[in-house]
Amino acid sequence: MTMMQCPTTSLRAVPPALTVKPRLLRHLTLILLLILCMLGVGYLGYHLSEKSGIRQLRDNGERQLELHARAVESEINRYTYLPSLLELESSVSHLLLHPTPYRRNLVNDYLEGLNRRSGARATFLLDTEGRVLATSNWREADSFLGEDLAFRAYFQDAVQGRPGRFYGIGSTTGEAGYYLAHGLRYQGRIIGVAVVKVKLEALQERWEKARLQAFVSDENGIIILSSDPALRMKAVRPLSADDKERLARSLQYYWWALNEWEPRSRESLGEGLEAISFASHGPDGQDQDDIAYLAQTRPLAGTPWHFTLLSPLADLRREAIIQGMLAAVGLALLAFLLIAWNERRKVIATRLAAREALLAANNELERKIAERTADLRASNHRLLEEIRERKQTEENLRKAQDGLVQAGKLAVIGQMSTSIAHELNQPLAALRTLSGNTVRFLARGALDTASTNLAAINELVDRMGRITASLRAFARRSDDHGQARLGKAVDAALFLLSTRLERTALTLHRDFADVLLAIDQTRLEQILVNLIANALDAMSGQDDCQLWLAGRVDGSTYRLQVRDNGPGIDPANREHLFEPFFTTKPGEHGLGLGLTLSASLATAAGGSLAAHHPEGGGTAFELCLPLLENPGSPAP
Predict the structure, then answer these.
(1) 441 and 573 share a domain?
(2) Residue where a domain terminates, one of 141, 165, 199
(3) Each residue of 306-346: pLDDT tens digit?
(4) Exposed e or buried b per residue across 155-166, where buried means at least 16 C-beta atoms within 10 angstroms of its C-beta
(5) 176 - beta bridge partners?
(6) How far is 35 from 404, CA to CA, in rounded Å?
(7) Per residue in 386-397, pLDDT tens?
(8) Where does the source fall among the domains of life (predicted)?
(9) How many alpha carbons lie under 13 Å from residue 467 in its C-beta half-sphere?
(10) 3-class SS at 497?
(11) Hey, which residues does 189 pair with through a beta bridge?
């Protein structure tokens, strides 16, 4: 019965959140991973389908591109023979050599009939100066007759013996056309130029009827023929300011603005192949989704022009999206089947393992409870022993520290014993002399003189009392905690070292505030005595001795710096400054405990003591102690 109850109690003791949250986290991670995989497979299916569709569209487009490009070439080549045909007509040569009104009328009638039979827009004849002598449209109000066309590029090429090929907008009629020019020769020299203006709008009408989206761009990159009228006279590439100025002067496109054709996006897919997209507008002028095309371009033979076929990509991309979605759904279905199979396998395995683990868990639980109870008792016993040993160690350490501090004080007093003896010997000698003199003056009845001597004796006794009181206060055991006045501590330290100060040519600089610090008064005095005595030792033998006592507030602490202008500390000895019994003083002048005790006293009070080595020389010790009161006026 006990074995059946223990697991139940153990399982109920486990908080539900601890068992649900990791499982929920795993499920969320699995769902996120599945979504990422679906997105990746969907994108891959879309990408592969799009590439395959573009490849098929490109193959179909190449056939249409070749077919329609050849149609444009044949339309242009129909009229290439026509300008040179005028060399065979004698009336044309006679008019160019000897122009008369009669000959002009003959040639006008001839050109009118020739133009009607050929189906061209206009046929006209120019002399070597570029003046139109005869034209097929001489009967019309906007006739070319007499017009100066010397500035046209086709005339300049033909008059020099080269074939003139030019697409432009007529400066008289404003109609666009393709100009074919040929230089007419007589006895080896050019006597005029024959020009045929061809209509190409039939191609555009043919493209519109076939719902073909295509355009032709000339050597300047200007769209001259297009199934979409909005694209005509647009530049397929950016035009520089010089190009625009040159085209404007040539009047090739009359006064058209020649704006740049700006698709929303362009992506090169190979030589003469790119994917482009345009912004589409609805009937109400609102922006709709972009329309994408596959643009295929090839040059037109015999001209510097290029023919471009635009194949819509909307249906292709729609099909690619469907293929990507099917791939993602297929992956999701496969993943769900695998998850369901895995969960079913886990359930069966868990049920089988639970029966075997239940009895083992009961036995193991009771055994662990007994073992851990014994371990806890042993651990408690060890902890109690360690606590007692630690308390004893801390007590011993505190006593040792107090003894070490007291020993340091006595060591300092021992070092000052000679000065103290000298300080006391002088008053004692004076007392002996004054007391003897007072007896003799009393015997003689000189009471005023005796009274003066007795007052002097009283002052000497008070002076000796102050010296011994300072020594007793310095030697007295003190506590880690308390409070101390910085000004009072500095004065006491200087008083204890007054004899040494009198024998030293020292300049003392005081720049600190009389603040209240969180340290015992006696301990602060001991730290200052050690630091000032070390500074005096470092400057011994110098003619110019400078000692600075400078303090400043740093947040909740006060920093007092004791700096001298001595020779400084050898770099090899700097890292050992605060080690016990390390000293650089010769012989019995130092025990090596002063800085160690000072640092220990500062740390016990919650502060610190650090050494600095200024670049200008000397040594600076910075004492940091907790501040109990805002600084008052600087100490005098």
Answers:
(1) no
(2) 199
(3) 888 887 777 777 777 888 888 888 888 888 888 888 888 88
(4) bbbbbeeeebbb
(5) 169
(6) 73
(7) 898 888 888 887
(8) Bacteria
(9) 21
(10) coil
(11) 186
